């Protein structure tokens, strides 16, 4: 199953077309894309009676974030060994978790307005929760996942490392527009192997990050299970799972986003997320 937020309304892909869920279900389900996660199991069963999707189409005009207002937005740092290495940090023994405040969520194609000259990119696989998760064993963690989408964990490196200790991860990654998300939410069954997806980021057409999610230190099962030990995960919550090497901060010399740049984030089976960069005018 593939869903999208088009013009602020929930749509489901049937074969090569998108249908309006509220209209097609005759009001059984809300048009609000966020509302569907609270009834995910019921919606999934209803969608199973509809014709399945064909190939992944182009990004629809007017597409919005598939999870526009998550209750919780969490992120895992240093979750690829090569990114930890380029950051000059040791591999974590447990998932390194920080909040990415939900007000940062942005639609695909929304311009990223730069607040300063040290703004960095981080392409990430994003997990969307589909069922309440509390003390979930790893073996059944995927059962609590609604689907996957693409995210950019945009980061203000100056703010991130401000102060006597680098304690501003959450704030530095949560400025307005710092969480572009989408364009599709794809259920795991649509993917040949949801634990092994090619992940790529291009800056102005040049590949700057390229890896596979099979290289996650803590995979989706581990992350969901780990978080659910300490938190209650709710339907519609999102989890940014980490970025591979190739970020601007880790380069020599360092490279940061500039007005006029364009980021293109790709994950196998999930489509493309475009982010145009603008100056703070």
TrEMBL record:
Residue ranges of domain Fumarylacetoacetase-like C-terminal in the record: 73-277
Keywords: Hydrolase, Metal-binding
Keyword Hydrolase assigned: yes
UniProt similarity note: Belongs to the FAH family.
One Pfam short name: FAA_hydrolase
UniProt-recorded name of the protein: Fumarylacetoacetate hydrolase family protein
Molecular function GO terms recorded: hydrolase activity
InterPro entries linked to this entry: FAH, Fumarylacetoacetase-like_C
Species: Pseudonocardia abyssalis
Highest taxon listed in the record's lineage: Bacteria
